[in-house]
Design a protein that fits this description.
This protein is α+β, with helices and mostly antiparallel strands. It has one domain: BirA Bifunctional Protein, domain 2, CATH 3.30.930.20. The protein is about 45% helix and about 15% strand. It has helices at about 10-20, 25-50, 110-120, 125-140, 165, 185-200, 200-210; strands at about 55, 75-80, 90-95, 100-105, 145, 170-175. A six-stranded antiparallel beta sheet has the order 1-2-3-4-6-5. Helix 1 (about 10-20) crosses helix 2 and helix 4 (about 125-140) runs antiparallel to helix 7 (about 200-210). The two termini are about 35 Å apart. The mean pLDDT is about 95.
C-alpha cells in the first residue's frame, strides 16, 4: 500500500483517547484507529524499510503490570526500524495528538554494550567523532536524550574528558512537528526520510562502536 499521509481522524482519535482512555472508547473508535493510524503508519515504514531496515509497529496496548498508571492504551503509535546486522542504532517514528515525532539511536543498552560505548567515548579518535556529531545534531534542532547517571560511572573520574557522554547508559536524538497540513499528505514520508538520514552518522557510530549485546537472551529482559 502506498503511503498518502496521516488522515486528520488519527489525531482526533488520540485527542479523544487522551480524554477517555478506556476500553469503551477504544472499542467504539477502533475503526478510526485502524484506518487513520495503523494502516498509514504501516504503509510509511514499509516504504522506508529498504533504506532503513526491518520495521516493527508497536502494539497499542500499555504494559501495566508494574505501573501505577493502569490506563490500558498508549496515547501514541510508534514504529522502529532496525538495520540488519547493525546491533545498535535504529530509527523511530511516532504519531500522536501532538503531531509527528522522529528519533534515532539506542534506547536500551545491555551492560556489555554500555561498557563498549564508554570505552569508545573515552577514545581519542571515536570520542571526538561522537562529540562532533552530537554538537551538529543539537545545532540542527535535535534534542539529545537517553538514560544517564547522576554522577560519573564507576571507574571513571568525575573530571574525565567527555564526562557528560560517559554518564549516558543510552543515547538518542529526537525532534517533532506539531500538526500541520503536510502531515496529511505524502510529503510526510519525505520529512521522515530526510530526518532519519540526518541520524545516519550517529547510528553508524553506534553500530561500529557498540554493536550487538553478547549477553544471553534470558539476561536481556
Amino acid at each position: 500500500m502506498r503511503f498518502e499521509g496521516f488522515p486528520d481522524e488519527g489525531l482526533i482519535f488520540y485527542e479523544g483517547l487522551e480524554a477517555d482512555n478506556s476500553r469503551t472508547y477504544w472499542t467504539e473508535h477502533r475503526a478510526a484507529y485502524d484506518a487513520a493510524v495503523r494502516v498509514p503508519l504501516q504503509a510509511l515504514v514499509d516504504e522506508l524499510a529498504p533504506e532503513f531496515g526491518l520495521p516493527k509497529v508497536f502494539r497499542p496496548y500499555r504494559d501495566v503490570r508494574f505501573s501505577n498508571d493502569k490506563t490500558p492504551y498508549k496515547t501514541h503509535q510508534g514504529a522502529v526500524l532496525t538495520p540488519d546486522g547493525a546491533g545498535a542504532g535504529s530509527v523511530y517514528v511516532q504519531l500522536s495528538a501532538d503531531g509527528l515525532r522522529v528519533s534515532g539511536g539506542c534506547w536500551r543498552l545491555q551492560p556489555d554494550q554500555v561498557e563498549r560505548y564508554r570505552r569508545a567515548v573515552a577514545d581519542d579518535v571515536q570520542g571526538p567523532r561522537l562529540t562532533g556529531e552530537i554538537d551538529r545534531l543539537r545545532s540542527a534542532g535535535w534534542e539529545i536524550g537517553g538514560d544517564r547517571l547522576v554522577r560519573a560511572p564507576r571507574g571513571w573520574p568525575a573530571d574525565s574528558e567527555r564526562i557528560d557522554l560517559l554518564r549516558h547508559k543510552s543515547l538518542h536524538a529526537s525532534r517533532g512537528w506539531e500538526p500541520a497540513d503536510w502531515l496529511h499528505q505524502r510529503i510526510a514520508l519525505d520529512r521522515v526520510r530526510d530526518a532519519w538520514r540526518e541520524l545516519a552518522a550517529l547510528n553508524r557510530w553506534l553500530a561500529d562502536n557498540v554493536g550487538a549485546s553478547n549477553a544471553p537472551a534470558d539476561r536481556r529482559r
